[in-house]
């Protein structure tokens, strides 16, 4: 094991160096079938049950391109403002690895289906950073290996490995950015925000499950530093398969501080792949990167070229849904939000769920308020994602409606929400079971008022004397007596009319 | 020798369909012949007597019920061991796949079964179809029934020898650089490489994907045509399969057999004669060309200058593609594994040791050559340039087909050479495919039909007919016409001049 | 053009995962040399303005419908495996890292 790497203080890194980022994102498409065969494209499953001669790389088996995967690739390319190739081919990338059944990956090399695009990324402070996209190309995923013996699941010290090819051949789109310069201190944030924006985009397109935790969205982060004032890129490292947004940010920051320490100490950065360790937030050396010529790319002879007709590309462009940034602009206008309010909503990752609540009939202001305040607190308290809370937008909308019609006070409404979160059923059921309905029966209230007035004759006297402000004490007593289920406004009205009569 | 084994597939099919003879009887006669002569010939790597007889019984039952699956129903066939079969091993002549029974049938295999063709077994071949003599088989060479000390051609020497030894009336071969036509030429049998994309490659264990094509092998042109129509046609499992009707090759063969070639223009390829061509081969070829003239064809000489670059281009393209195609043989999922049980060995070491032990020298040579030719620094000079040569060759073909309907040339420069003669000299061996390779590079159709015996050694000579892509029917017409004239001139079918084989092991 | 050296053959054999013997290195170096010399003529067209042909038949856009087709059972998939365990292919320990 290597010693813990030396790191440079982040502020000092930025005084002395400019970072250059390159991000490669692999997206598994959610097609019904794999890229080159008719096997089901599903996550998990009994090992080696979604396989056929083609995706097992058996002698004699041949690939046939999944047309829907090509459509998805073109739609992704269009959404990323890319040019779509007039003509392109698959190529073979030759290298040996046991999880790759043919010992070559069918991918695209110098002829990607989409190239020269960009994605505008919204940063936390509302600034927009344009990420230039080099290319988006089609390829296939590998199988999965399980390492047995030694430290569980780790490749080092394993006695043998077990291979499952269910994932082999799943369609992947690899999206590669151009080198990103000029991010400065915000490099880690840009990296995170880019992957986040890409995830939202892909989700809106409906082409992928974009689950970083399940590996359907994976990011490799290339980082290099150049001394301030120079423009020649430094040697880069590639941190592979970082599997959460937060990890993307941490990995970039870590590599910047590690590179800086090495460079400042007169050392050189080795071009290599690195692995990010979630628990320590650090990266470790993988292996020296094979040079490009070792892959011996050549056009895949088992597949014919793809020449997307322009009419087809136009038809696909017409299928693009409202994209995330267009939607944000529309929502901001419709809900009358300030830039700050919009940003808070986006940063809380609450835009979709609030919109769903509005769609379920709630006014935008109330819907926003519930999710970004009360429910966000609940999510934070339990350490879950907002969207993972056991309450639906429709249920929140129902609660908001009950308040609006006067059946619930705000305080009661929070109790109803607590009940739903506790699994007590629909809002109406919680109201029923917990007996939370506002006491709107005047006779019941009058009885409580009379009792309170009798108990505090001096206060009653003041009210009768015209000191209406004194009614507060009686309201408080009545609310207490009715366990908060009374409408305080109505109680006050009744007290005053009682004392006037 | 049973009379049944001397008949053509067309004759056998007609008698089986008419219930004059049963498929079981025909199949049994061929199985008996295999038992008798294959110890000497070694055409087969695997014989499935039980499976063949069961399939034959099924065909007989179907025919009894009035259902004839195809014009070849009930006729036995020898299948090259490079096409996958669910019920028999598929070894490709390699130790790497010894005993491997694929979990799926090749499309060609499936079509044969659906047509009621009886698969007798799997035939010997050069390892992974790399070779021109079948000496590169890991299971020992096949011998040429015309002279057991000579090669039967390659890589499909098992299929061609099975035909010449009357072990099967039909066979399937695969042709990457001549592996159907050259064995056909040296064994006096008919071998056809259909237009690339005409026959599905699904289940054909790839040697060089952009060149490989399966095709029919038979003793007559009509039999080859009948088999062609059984195996050809679009297959959605092969992206390079042509989605168009199969050329009407049977009708063309029948039309040609009427013996009239008037109106047909034949081009003789100027580049394919001269130094290195055996005089007897040239003489037999010239005689055949004269025969075409007599049948009414107009014969002209045509120059295809780029054809001289075909052999070198092929020896860059085929090894390059094979270096990638054969990477899958890595001891992980199927086939040979060397070093199992030695815990000290890593997967990578086991891969290297297995590939070292499992591949023969020709395969290793080509894998290394292909690895080299694809390397970044060499790609443009080698693989990239070879792809340009393909364009030049296609242009030569296109220009020629503006003048003529078909092109003709010797199939191979010499007759069958003695076993062992060229083993140590790869370049010498590669020359056997000199005349066949252009059609693979351009993807058009080509076939070899026997054109007599060479004066010097009395061994068969092959006459190659080449036609444009998807015009396979043209060459069948010419071949069928020529075949009738040849047999009429010789007073009988050439193949019946093959020496009697002793029914005993060598 | 200088042809292939013994070291180069060793490098290529490593890339191709062939544990070649010393004798083979000599044999192949010699034979590849001869082969490369005789195919060198092909390199003469490298500079020519000729489009490369990668596919013999000029087909494009061959696509498959995105419909699931039955594949192999686990037992069929593993039927030819040198070793299997728990429904998976069992292989010797893997040293390198994933790509
Ligand atoms: Mg990739
Ligand atoms: Zn599959």
Helices and strands of chain C, in order, run as HHEHEE
The shape of chain C, in one word, is flat
How many DSSP E strands of chain B?
11
Instruction: Name the CATH architecture of the domain at 6-45 in chain C.
Output: Orthogonal Bundle
Provide the spatial order of strands within the biggest beta sheet of chain B.
1-3-2-4-6-5-10-11-9-7-8
String of helices and strands of chain B: HHEHEHEHEHEEHHEHEHHHHEHHEEH
CATH topology of chain B: Amidase signature (AS) enzymes
Helix content of chain B: 25-40%
- What is the residue-averaged pLDDT of chain B? 96
In angstroms, what is the radius of gyration of chain B?
21 Å
The average pLDDT of chain C is 91
CATH topology heading of the domain at 6-45 in chain C = Histone, subunit A
Roughly how many Å apart are the termini of chain C? 35 Å
Examine the secondary-structure arrangement and name the CATH architecture of chain B. Alpha-Beta Complex
Q: Indicate the multimeric state.
A: heterotrimer
Could you describe the 3D structure shown?
The complex is a heterotrimer of chains A (501), B (506) and C (99). Chain A folds into 3 domains: 10-314, no CATH class; 322-434, no CATH class; 442-500, Arc Repressor Mutant, subunit A, CATH 1.10.10. Chain A is built from 16 helices and 15 strands. Chain A has helices spanning 10-16, 67-79, 187-205, 245-264, 310-318, 324-335, 339-347, 351-359, 364-382, 393-404, 410-421, 427-434, 442-455, 457-464, 471-481, 488-500, and strands at 17-28, 65-66, 83-84, 91-94, 104-107, 114-122, 128-140, 144-148, 160-164, 171-177, 217-227, 237-242, 272-277, 282-288, 298-299. Chain B has 16 helices and 11 strands. Chain B has helices spanning 9-17, 23-41, 49-64, 107-114, 157-164, 181-187, 221-231, 249-256, 279-294, 310-325, 347-358, 361-374, 376-403, 426-430, 437-442, 472-490, and strands at residues 44-47, 76-80, 118-123, 170-174, 190-193, 214-218, 265-269, 298-302, 406-410, 445-453, 460-467. Chain B has an 11-stranded mixed β-sheet with strand order 1-3-2-4-6-5-10-11-9-7-8, with helices on both faces. In chain B, α4 links the parallel β2 and β3. Chain C has a domain at 6-45: Histone, subunit A, CATH 1.10.20. Chain C has 3 helices and 3 strands, in the order ααβαββ. Chain C has helices at 6-15, 22-39, 74-78; strands at residues 63-64, 84-85, 88-92. In chain C, α1 packs across α2. Chain C is flat. The mean pLDDT of chain C is 91. Classes of the chains: A alpha+beta (501), B alpha/beta (506), C alpha+beta (99). Chains B and C meet through α10, α11, α12, α13 and α15 of B and α1, α2 and β3 of C. Chain A: Belongs to the GatB/GatE family. GatB subfamily.
